[in-house]
UniProtKB/TrEMBL annotation:
Record's function text: Aminotransferase that catalyzes the conversion of aromatic amino acids and 2-oxoglutarate into corresponding aromatic oxo acids and L-glutamate.
UniProt keywords, alphabetically: Aminotransferase, Pyridoxal phosphate, Transferase
Family, per entry: Belongs to the class-II pyridoxal-phosphate-dependent aminotransferase family.
UniProt xrefs under SUPFAM superfamilies: PLP-dependent transferases (SSF53383)
Cofactor requirements of the protein: pyridoxal 5'-phosphate
Subunit structure: Homodimer.
Pfam families linked to this entry: Aminotran_1_2 (PF00155)
Gene name per UniProt: hisC
Gene Ontology annotations of biological process type: L-histidine biosynthetic process
Gene3D superfamilies membership: Aspartate Aminotransferase, domain 1, Type I PLP-dependent aspartate aminotransferase-like (Major domain)
Protein name: Aromatic amino acid aminotransferase
Coiled coil: none
UniProt GO molecular function: aromatic-amino-acid transaminase activity; histidinol-phosphate transaminase activity; pyridoxal phosphate binding
NCBIfam families per the UniProt record, alphabetical: hisC, PRK03321.1
Amino acid sequence: MSGTAAQGPRLRASLDGIPTYKPGKPAGADSFKLSSNENPYEPLPGVLEAAVAAAGSFNRYPDMAAVELTEELARRFEVPAEHVALGTGSVSVAQSLVLATAGPGDEVIFAWRSFEAYPIITQVAGATPVPVPLTGDEAHDLDAMLAAITPRTRLILVCNPNNPTGVAIRRPELERFLAAVPGDILVVLDEAYREFLRDEQVPDGVELYRSRPNVCVLRTFSKAYGLAGLRVGFAIAHEPVATALRKTAVPFGVSQLAQDAAVASLRAEDALLVRVQALVEERTRVSAALREQGWPLVESQANFVWLRLGERTVDFAAAAGAAGVIVRPFPGEGVRVTIGETAANDLFLSVAEAFRKEV
Ligand code: PMP
């Protein structure tokens, strides 16, 4: 056996610098998980029934074209069915978008801090991440993002509202930005938290996409629709982007359970949106209580709040964990805390109050 073979297969050297995606810590039986922006509600009975019915045929491959779900989405958003591209959660659609646009030598711009998968999927494609720091108000610095464009830029990821800060970009700013981006650069509006938005000045990405061939929208069933565990997300994109997505996606990536549950969720949308409204009201309550406690808080339009804690981030996460609430720390920066069930939110608020008094 040669020396090289004994060391095992040779992997791409560039992977060494790429971190693995870190999910929120799982919750123990006696703690609340507020670290992954999940929906705290159990599946609606009708949605569960649809998934259970599909489970009866999981010896078969799913419908790869996902005809029913695609048509349902196309109807709902009033777009051609060919413009809908599904994936194994919107993170995999985001990865397909990177693979479709950028390779070695190409650049992908995104705000930072933002969704932690962006630099990972960029580097997995062999492309170069160009993170652009958020403003002091935790918002996208769109002027700096424009200034970061080079002849090598292929893709710009815009997270609206932003994960983990919750801050959303309003219409005039976003329209000005889109008008200034060269038409050969794809702009992805990642609207994973869209349904939690209540600021009417924030535009709907689907409306922005309609007249702009280089703009596409990313949505997910994981958050407002409560299907995180089933893994289904989608893009709405013009040709040829949508066609490219169908090429770069892993075949059969959306199970029949996921497809059927997603269709049932769209049909049960009214009931699901009542739950979303309850979470938005909890967000308002939690935000007001935090401000009352003296926390400087930016306004979140998503299903989480952001506490900029700097050096005290890890201590806060540990204190929360000890009290039975798992939050998401970004060491040196802050913690993101999902809005969950009332009891979980109350426990988080009591941790925040005690921590605030200590310092
Ligand atoms: N985009 C953003 C901004 C997110 O925060 C997340 C999940 N944390 C995703 C995409 C991916 O979600 P999923 O793959 O579950 O659709």
